[in-house]
Amino acid sequence: MKNKTTALILSVLVGTLGVDRFYLGYMGMGVLKLLTGGCFGILWIIDIVNIATGKLQPADGTPYEDIKIVSAESQSAKNPYDDLEKLAQLHKTGALTDEEFAKAKAECLSKM
Questions:
Q1: Which residues contact 29 (CB under 8 A, 6 or more apart)?
Q2: Digitized pLDDT (tens) for each residue of the chain, 112 residues in all
Q3: What pTM, to 2 d.p., does this model score?
Q4: Residue 54 backbone phi and psi in degrees, to 5
Q5: Cα 93 from Cα 99, distance rounded (Å)
Q6: Where are the alpha helices (DSSP H) in the chain?
Q7: CB neighbour list of residue 74: distance below 8 Å, 6 or more residues apart
């Protein structure tokens, strides 16, 4: 799967050489842009806009790869039961004292 951000960065930086089209799998258009300097700059600008708006997709028909950044806080908010289980394991192994375990357990329970 291709990444939309990568395609856009390639298009902006080296799009006049057709690198963006080669990356997306359009070999013929890549060669055309390489030989004509991005069709004298016109196709270069059009490709930047089309990639940014999502109109220019990878040639194999797959959608762009979605990058999802999940913070630790939002991930723990999704399943507090897993957090309680992890805390119990840490307490059992001795990594957490009784006081630390009680405090962390209270925080997890308050999020429920």
A1: 18, 21, 43
A2: 889 999 999 999 999 999 999 999 999 999 999 999 988 999 999 999 999 998 999 999 888 887 665 555 555 456 777 888 888 888 888 888 888 888 888 888 887 7
A3: 0.59
A4: 85, 10
A5: 15
A6: 4-14, 19-24, 27-40, 42-53, 72-78, 80-93, 98-111
A7: none
